[in-house]
Write a structure and sequence with these properties.
This protein has about 300 residues and is an alpha+beta fold. About 35% of the residues lie in helices and about 25% in strands. It has eight helices and nine strands. A hairpin with a 6-residue loop joins strand 3 and strand 4. Helix 4 packs antiparallel against helix 5. The radius of gyration is 20 Å and the shape is globular. The N and C termini lie far apart (about 40 Å).
Length: about 300
Amino acid sequence: SLDTPVREELAYVGVVYIDTLAKRFINRFRDIERFESGSGIPQIGRFGSPPQLEDLASFTLPPTDLKALPKCRPGDCDLKLSAAAMRRFRNEVDWSSPNAAHQADEVAREMILDLVRRYQADGNAALGYYDDSDDPLLVADQFRALLASGDPLPVPMPEFLAYLDDYPRGRPPGTEDFFYWTVVDFGLKPTIRVNHVSIYPLAVGLSSGVAYVIAIKQLYASHYFNTTLELRFLAHDDRPSGRRGACLMSITRSRSDGMTGFKGFFLRPIIRRRSRNAVRGYLEYAKRQVEAPAPAAP
């Protein structure tokens, strides 16, 4: 765990050795649905280019969200939503109908697709507000504050960090982007997340040995996290035996609600511990995924 400037922010760093080349990690990671499917991620899908509604065909709202949505009002909602999104669920779903869950799933799919399309056109301006509490929260401001509070990184990359903030402008040469959605269940409420991934290849021969940087920028989370940025650094690591592997370093920073005041005094240690364990678990999982034999072609 890393020190953070405000109580709402959590930060972690972890490193794992992977007994394979960095390029193999990148190739496996591009197949994000296969790479991350498993325990703790019951639903996942990658958006095509351009994103289509069919990319969300398997998405369904968690039962806890379906129970909470009919009660949502600006300033009082168990999900992170804008006031406009709450109105859509209230006006477009007949909550008394036996088909209400299907209607709600359709509205949610349309809203997620619209978010990704608008973000691809307008960047952070499309992230909008969360109106679930008394004080509306501008998501772009939360992300910029997160970037500003970061620790020194293993390699200087100001142009890449600027791109994450200014997307879609200023893409560094060679950078690859894709988008995916998940439902994550790490022990609290199942959480819907929408992510922007950028893979940034670094110049060969850097003294640090870092070959790639992967940024995972959260565009939306239905619970807990106002914003999250994970930076993964893949560095070549030659073994004395002559075998070539890679070191994967992960730096994860997030800003969450519910961690200040009297309630936060009790809640923050729980979220901090579970988030730290999730980072450790993910690094162990990624190592197993990449070192395993390549899956057979369909």
